[in-house]
Amino acid sequence: MKVHYSTALAALLYSRAALAHPGHDHGALAGLLHPLTGLDHVLAMLAVGLWGAQLGGRAQWLLPAGFVACLALGGALGMAGMALPMVEAGILASVLLLGALIGFAVRLPLLPSLAIVGVFALFHGFAHGIEMPVAGNGALYALGFVAASAALHCAGLLLGRFALPQGWLRASGAAISLAGAWLAFA
């Protein structure tokens, strides 16, 4: 199956504008849409799948699974009103570093790789948790943002495994990292 990458990228970028207006519900749909409304979240989630695909073996499944587990923990901490310093910096760092790891084809052992994505997942989950709608159902909202994040990981994994040649995979990582730098100054 041939994928037209510019069409997919345009749809991804335009989806943010389509989803950014109010009127979403306060449960699973709100949680499902939340990770898709920020370019930083979308890029980091895709990057986890791409890096897992690049590392291969057990990493292709454990990196996304570990991210999702730590994302849920971070979301629970945010919903509980806990404090986590430098959340936005951590999210931005996730885009920059994950993109760079892919771009430079860094092959770390599994445990350090899991630690990296786990720490970044705490920041992303915390941000989702503290941004839960006031009248929201926490469990349904969490189910939504966890499902959307997992879907983005799967999309990155599938792109990395089946759609992108190795050179394009590395170029995708570089593009993610550059987008992170742009987000830092936007």
UniProtKB/TrEMBL annotation:
Transmembrane parts of this sequence: 36-54, 61-80, 86-105, 110-127, 139-160, 167-185
At the top level of its lineage, which domain of life is listed? Bacteria
Respond yes or no to whether keyword Ribosomal protein is given for this record. no
Going by the UniProt record, its keywords in alphabetical order are: Membrane, Signal, Transmembrane, Transmembrane helix
Q: Which InterPro entries match?
A: HupE_UreJ
Q: Name one Pfam family in it.
A: HupE_UreJ
Segment forming the signal sequence: 1-20
Name of the protein this chain belongs to: HupE/UreJ family protein
The organism's lineage is: Bacteria, Pseudomonadati, Pseudomonadota, Betaproteobacteria, Burkholderiales
